[in-house]
User: Fold this.
Amino acid sequence: MKLTHPLSLTILIVLSFQTANSRDCYICKTPKCDALSTTTCGGRSVCFSVDYNNGNGKIIVKGCTTQALCSQPLPFVPSGSSFNQRCCDAQLCNSAITNKISLLTAGLVALVSLYVSRL
Assistant:
């Protein structure tokens, strides 16, 4: 397949821009993280998710950070509490659902499949 078709070129440009310049991560709108939203992070950012349970309830924080901060040792956790930190470097990877595909990628795959099937 030649890449001279405008649709093919557009798809390649969008995919390369999306992966090279930004990353989307989930963020929590409430301390229990029962309402998620997304945010676009800077070029070298990774997504993170932190769960903290002090025995009185669980607090969940999600967002963007740097890989250097993810590599830091866990803080002191008082007895009876738990602190779990996870970092990942893919689109929307900090959700509870690990195998999630972005809507943009799914749409582009559908368009390419439709285009190829009509050749």
Summary: The mean pLDDT is 75. Residues 6-21 form the longest helix (16 residues). DSSP finds three helices and five strands in the chain. The CA atoms of residues 35 and 94 lie 14 Å apart.
